[in-house]
Amino acid sequence: MRLSNLQKYILRACFNAKGYRLNREVLLGFYDLTAKSKKELRAKIITQSIESLIDRELLVGYGLRTPHKWFITEIKLTEVGLKKTKKLLGEQLVLPLKK
To answer: Is residue 28's pLDDT more than 90?
Structure first.
């Protein structure tokens, strides 16, 4: 399963948070490192990434629901997400050495 840089950042941020639960507003820190997108679209991009991770069962979203829309305020890693994040942190490249 391929993950974007933003999705990897989200998983690492949840992994480093206490109880693996994180407020969504902390994720805007990703754009302090790389400011490639417009400021108006950042919230929308983060929402789409969070929803994609929820669909893959890596995160659980907490928030408010209106008749038309969900407003995700907090996210938490699931067991599957925890395993994926640990694997993501420990990956190393294998050199193609011939014997």
So the answer is: no
